[in-house]
Every structure is written in structure tokens, then in C-alpha cells.
Amino acid sequence: MSFWAVEGNEGGFLPAEKASCDEALPYGLYEHVRVEKELLELARAGELRTSIAALPFIEVCLSEGEYQSHKHNKHQAVRLYTAPEQEAAFSLFGILAGGYVHALSATGREDEDTKTIEIPACVAVPFRRLSMSVGRLPIWDYAGCVLSNWKIKDSTRSVSLENIEILRTFTNLEAEKWFYKIHVVIEAYGGQAMAAVFKARAAAKLANSQKMKHLYLVQDLVPLASEVNECLKRLSACVQMMKLTFSRMPEKCKAEDFYNIVRPWLAGWPSRGVVYGVPDDDNAEVDNKAKAITQVLGGGSGAQSSLMPCLDAFLGVKYAPNDGSAACPGMKKFIEQLQKYRLHMPIEHCHLIQTLEKENVGIRSFLSHCNNVVGIWYPSKKDKEMEEPHNNDNEYKGDIDNTQDGNGSSEFFMDSIPMVHREQQRMEALKLSIELYELKKNYNQVVETMLSFRRMHVGFATLYISRQAKDLARTASEIDGAKILENAAVGTGGSTFAKHLMHHIDDTRQCLYKIRSPPIPEIDIEERLQLDREPEKSWYSYGMYEALQDHIDKLSSLFGIINDDANDSDVDLMF
Prior knowledge:
Elements: H1 30-37, H2 39-44, H3 48-53, E1 58-61, H4 64-69, E2 76-79, H5 83-101, E3 117-119, H6 121-134, H7 142-147, E4 150-152, E5 164-166, H8 174-207, H9 218-246, H10 255-266, E6 274-276, E7 294-295, H11 307-315, H12 331-341, H13 347-358, H14 363-377, H15 381-386, H16 410-415, H17 419-474, H18 478-488, H19 498-509, H20 525-533, H21 539-542, H22 544-558
Parallel strand pairs: 1-2, 3-6
Antiparallel strand pairs: 4-5, 6-7
């Protein structure tokens, strides 16, 4: 299993390998680690940039062949062959690069130099090399500060806020460590949520296969629906635990500490840009054109997590298209920004999101498939009311093979099946209708929990950023106050987050189903008499009539319908 594998990994988007990334750093990076541990003190003393620039130049070797060829090079070389080693080093150099860029602004000092900031070659060169190896942009991202930035204290216990330790920080303060811990534990619960997604996805794939499209096999669809129901219950519980974990943020990470101390270090590169320096000597094997490239990259952000995009793709939640109207201006630009965040995600995570978005086996597709099957066996106007319209491109298109001769006639299909088997399938379709009702209830529960999580996210964004900025702006000059509010409107990743988070809440809410009771079957009296006249084809011969009656009684009890109260029920029971 690869380092960033998700499917089959109980940690979900957390690294699959158990080896701690801090133990993967070679001794040759000792000086770099020392500066990272003293970063805040050096910054406050005004010595951080000088200390980083004085670090020894290290050649990063990603294979034994590279190491052997660099043995006689005047620069020291370190071997980083494995994924944990490369991720650990990428995170370390990411902190040093961010520390150099934000050394003045993060400590409340003005940088009078308006030129682009050039990161020293001793950090920039290995950082860019590792960036190409791990497949992500050269800045400390969410994967570096959260996903691979922890180790477990007691391996016999599960991941929890009390049982993990954060490896690297800018400030070494508890507020910053707690902020990362919260996200690590959310991702751990997200791993359990993704396990439920993969299991439900497998059931939906089987239901969508050619075999399962044949309506004669309704009984095979019922256990799949039951399995997906259990997956949705588990998914809802996991999202609820994610929310409860998120709610503990204020315990050790106060809003003022986050805004004034932690957030400035997590910001992206300033608008004037950053240049990744190269060595002065001509022998260094570095692309010298890099010196002329100025980059402006977004910093670490929760929007770089793959968890919520994957859950959205599975549940069928999409950003509503925006035509640039006054209702939500800039949505198109915001969606483009979210797509750019995928350049900061591990490649495997990005591919998974794309797969879930493109394939037609989401949960809504499965629900639509079940609804179509029930509608074939119990056609009525009320069946159509059970499925609410939904503007989702992944919606099931109704390509069920409901005929045996291809003439599109469901009546012909029904007549071609022996009566006893026909009634068996009708009974199974009734079971499926009960499962479908539960599926929609459980789906709505997941969506409601997602909505609650997103509302909490907006609340924390307002408390930890917008409100803090307004308080600070009141005590600043008019010009400085306007600048503070402008900066607060942009997240650490570089997006204008608040109004678009609210818009996505609306998109999520649109996915809720309006649930109706399952159809209770109407049995024609002539059909019943025919069965009585032909006992060899009767339900009684197979013990099926009693089973069907039991299911109808269950429906009646479930929805408060009794057979002798036809005027108050949605259907007329004719037994």
C-alpha cells in the first residue's frame, strides 16, 4: 500500500504507513531541525532570516544512484529514499521557507523592502526538489501541517486528541498544536467515514452492473439496499464525531491567539511574490531559470483536505452553477480556486476525488435505481412523488432493462413471468420499498449532519477571523483598518471563503429528499380469485401470501395505517 493510499487504509487520508515521519529525518538535517524548533524566538529577536540563510546547503538524494554520484560533491548529501523520509523533509523545508517569508510580517514588523522575497538556496533548492518528488507545490500545505505532521503516543490506543503529538510547528505554542490536532482527529474519523463510503460504493456498483439491471432479480437488490443503509448510518455517526471534535477547538486554541499568532505564519506568499533561490556556484545541478520565476502560492488551508470533496461527490452535493449574478458574484472564480487547491493535495487523494465525481455510482444514483425498480412493480402516481427532482449530473438515468424483448413494454415483461415468480418479485419489491424509505431517511440524516458541520465551520471562521479583524481594525488608523479587513476576507489558502461557504451550505441543503411513505400494494380482487382457482400457482403453495401480508402489516404499523381505515390512508387495501 502506498503512503497516501485511501481505500483499504483505516486512517483514510492520513498516511497509510505506521512509521512516524519525525523518525524518518536523517541526522544531516540536524541544523535545520534546530532552527525550526527555535523559529518563533529567532523571529521575535529579528534573527530568523539570518539563521535560515546560514544553514548548510544540503543535496537531496532520492535514490542510491544519486547518492553515489554526489559522494564527492563539495555539498553535503542526505538520503531520502522512502515516502516517509521525503514527506518529513518536505514538511521541514516548508516550515523554513514559510518562516523566512513571514519572518517580519508574522511578528508585527513592516518589511520596507517592496521587492520579491528570495528564499535562500539552502532551503529553496532541496524544497523544490522534494516538491517535484511528492507531486505538490513548494509551500507548507495541509498535507504537511496536518496529515503527516503527527505521531501517536500509545500505539495500543486509537487516534484521539489526547493520544497524538504534533511534530512541527511555526510557534511551538499549544494553540497551534491544538489547531493541527483537531484536524488530525477529524481526518481519523473521516477515515472511518470513507470506509463506509467505499463499502456503499461497492454495493452501488454491483446494483448498477448489467446483471442487477434485470428486474427479475429484485431479491438480489434488497440485501444491497440493506447494506447501503448500514453504511449511511455509520457515515452519519462518523460525521457527527467529526463535528464534536471540531467543537473542541476553543478549548486550547483561543480565537485571539489563532488570529494574532498562528494565522500569520500559515498565510500564502505575499502579492509581490517569492523567488526560490539557487546557489551562486556554477557546479550546482539546479535549473538556473528558476531564479527568474516569481511565484504567489496559497498557504495551508482546510480547503486542501480531500475529505469533504469526496463526501460531497459520494452524496451528490455540488456547487450550484453561477452566472455571475448579484446573488453570488465570483462563484466561478471561487470554484476555480478550489480546483487549484488540488495541486496541494497528494496525487492519490486528488485522483480519488476525480474518480468519485466522474463515476455514476453515487448514493443518489443507487436510490434512483431502487426507486425505479419499485416503480416497475408498483406503478402509481405516488411512486413518482417519492423521487424528488435533483439537478445532479450523476443522477441515475433510468437505463434499467425492464423488458425481455426490448420493446419497452413493462406489461409485456410482467405477463412473460410465471405468476408465482411474479408475485415473489412483487413481495421483494415491497421489501425494497421499505429499505428505500429507510435509505432516504438515513441519507437525509447524513446531509443534515454535514450541514451542521458546515455551519460550525462558518461560525468558527467568523469568530476566529472576521470578528478578530473587526476588533483590531477599530483600534487602527483608517488606512490600516481597511487593510486589516481586506486581509481578513481572504483565507490562508487565498480564497474569499465566508460567503462561498454559506452558498455551499445552500447547495448541500438542496440535496435533502422530501420523503413519502412507501407504496402499500393494491391487489386486484380478480387476480386473487384467479390464484384461488389455480392452487398450483397460488402464493399459499409457496408460503408467500403470508409473507407478503406480514410485510404489508409491517408497513401499516410503521406508518399508522390500518386496513379498515381506507379513507385516511393513501391507498385502498383490498385483502
